[in-house]
Amino acid sequence: MPHGIAQCRVGKRRYARDAIITSSSSESTRIVGTFDIGGLVGYGRGSTISSSSSVAGSIGGSREVGGLAGNGWGATISNSSSESTNISGENNVGGLVGHGESATFVRGGR
């Protein structure tokens, strides 16, 4: 399934609440939506994401926009990375995670 234009929760894994994602990657040229927009995971609340990566030309949305995960509220993210040339949005925008409230980040990457 191509990761192109959709409304919300856009990413290789659109909705991954409380999921365990390991050694996963995503490559796209353009990812666009409204909210919960990520290169790998759109909505990853409470998930564990490890040893994963995302490469995208551009990622854009209104809110909760991130290079790896759009919404990573309460997630644990370790040894993961994002390489995107353009990430844009209005609220909660980040290179790795757009919304990372109560998230745990473990240093390390590729």
- Give, in order, the helices and strands: EEEEEEEEEEEEEEE
Mean pLDDT across every amino acid position: 88
Strand content: over 45%
What does the largest sheet look like? Answer: 4 strands, parallel
Number of strands: 15
User: What is Rg?
Assistant: 12 Å
Unreliably modeled segments: none
Oligomer: single chain
Strand order of the largest sheet: 1-5-9-13
- The outline comes out as globular
Structural class: mainly beta
Distance between the termini: 26 Å
Helix content: under 10%
Helix tally equals: 0
For the record, the count of structural domains works out to 1
Describe what you observe in this structure.
The chain has strands at residues 8-10, 13-15, 20-22, 25-32, 35-38, 41-43, 48-50, 53-60, 63-66, 69-71, 76-78, 81-88, 91-94, 97-99, 104-106. It is mostly beta strands and 110 residues long. It has one domain (8-106). The strands form 4 sheets. It has a 4-stranded parallel beta sheet with strand order 1-5-9-13, with no helix packed on it. The mean pLDDT is 88.
Feature tags:
4-stranded parallel beta sheet; mainly beta; 0% helix; 110 residues
